[in-house]
Amino acid sequence: MNDRPHIVMLVSNLMFATRIEDAARAEGATALSPIDQAAFLTALRDNARLVIVDTSAQDIPWLKWVSAAKEDASTEAVPILAFGSHVDGELRQRALGAGVDRYLARSNFSEGLSEIIAAAVREATDEPCGEPLPAGALHGIEEFNAGQYFEQHETLELVWRAELRPIRDLYRGVLQIGVACLQVERGNAPGALKMIDRGVKWLQPFRPACQGIDVDRLLADAARLREEIERRGAAQVDRVDRRLFPKVHLITASPQHE
Questions:
Q1: Which residues of 126-163 are buried (b: 16+ CB within 10 A; e: fewer)?
Q2: Is the pLDDT confidence value at 187 over 50?
Q3: Where among 121, 145, 169 does a domain terminate?
């Protein structure tokens, strides 16, 4: 058995294959390219953290291999991420139907590749709220707290895309509260209220705290901002006191989400 984690590639594009190999190496992992279905299933059983599928790889029968992996009890738990055309809806549905867990547009995959590999290799537990914040999420929170609301959205979206587990919604909730602040700055009251409501929806399951984020405090701050936006109304949203903009508070010891 291979003790070193690895990424399994079903990728024929040399540029993408090289980038995946480099990203895996940077995380202390290896990237494998199996030559047939038997080798593919063997690789999945041997400490595989993620399968990456290029849906444009016509020389690889990836639909058949993915289906076989999801039908085998010894390999079905390995997450499978596919990337391809963002306009080919039929191919996307075929991939998901075969058992692909997530499908990304080629540009989104390329942009988030490093974080995707890092998230896959990072040691995961069955209780992700007890895990430390990923480096990308911590950076996004620093941008959030600095009032860099557009930048935090871009940073946290990469973390959200990379994570396959439900914990990804924690990052989505934070970034949407940040986008609400951006909408206030732009004078868009309806947009701000919509983003607060979305952020609250995603954050609620992680109360009272998760990965060191004081979720209850963030929700309370978001509620106060929402009340002020409604009080001011669309015509005066630009007068909302910026001191009411939420901050993401990190705590070192707290009751974690259960």
A1: eebbebebbebbbbbbebbbeebbebbbebbbbbbbbb
A2: yes
A3: 121
Nearest to 166 by CA among 129, 113, 212: 129
Q: Can you give the pLDDT at residue 254? A: 43
Residues of the domain holding 55? 6-121
Among 62, 96, 121, which residue terminates a domain? 121
Residues 98-107 have pLDDT tens digits of 999 989 999 9
Structure tokens at 64: 């058949």
CA distance 108 to 163: 13
Counting beta carbons within 10 angstroms of the beta carbon of residue 10, is it exposed (0 to 12), middle (13 to 18) or buried (19 or more)?
Answer: buried
If you ran DSSP here, which 8-state letter would residue 8 be given? E
Nearest residue to 21 via CA among 8, 39, 34: 8
112 shares a domain with 13: yes
Gyration radius from the chain CA atoms: 20
Residues 176 and 232 sit within 8 Å (Cβ to Cβ): no
For residue 33, give the 3-state DSSP assignment: coil
- Give 96's Cβ-side CA count (13 Å radius): 9
Q: Are residues 174 and 70 in the same domain?
A: no
Closest CA relative to residue 227, chosen from 188, 197, 202: 197
Element (H, E) at 52: strand 48-54
The number of domains in the chain is 2
Kind of pairing, strands 6-10 and 30-32? Answer: parallel
Note whether residue 12 is domain-resident. Answer: yes
- For the entire predicted model, the pTM comes to 0.72
